[in-house]
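Before a colleague's protein record goes any further, I have to sign it off. What it holds is a sequence and that sequence's fold in token form. Would you go through it and say whether the fold makes sense for this chain? The record follows directly below this note.
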Amino acid sequence: MSPLKLIVFDLDYTLWPFWVDTHVRGPFKIRNDQVVDGSGQKIKFYPEVPAILESLKSKGYILGIASRTEWPEGARKLLLLFGWSEYFTHQEIYPGRKTTNFKKIKDASGVQYSDMLFFDDEVRNITDLTAIGVKSILVRDGVNMKMVEEAIKSFK
């Protein structure tokens, strides 16, 4: 089996518990050290995400985002405000199929599909990516450290 080089995450219901294009609204800003939306609602993410990103980056994995949101600008702004943009070398965020996101990631990174790991909450995306050779993990209730560690172990 080939070595794991690149780990890609979906955003909505994978890194944070909402759809950015329907459940929150801009403008996003930081108030009292918290990210809030235009209505003043605190924007939350799944609790283990910062530690997961830090751990994966420190172990030398290339990280990417593949999101099919209808509001790419909002998603990018949240990544920036959460301080996560620095972790993701590849950010493919736009409506469409995940296979398009992954083709662009593959072309830009030079990493083959068989050397990628993907986390997403939608079965259709898992099915599409598994079909082209990306090891894909279905996420329920957001990613957590145990899930990521088990996926990496099962990759080897």
Summary: The longest helix spans residues 98-109. The first strand starts at residue 6 and ends at 9.
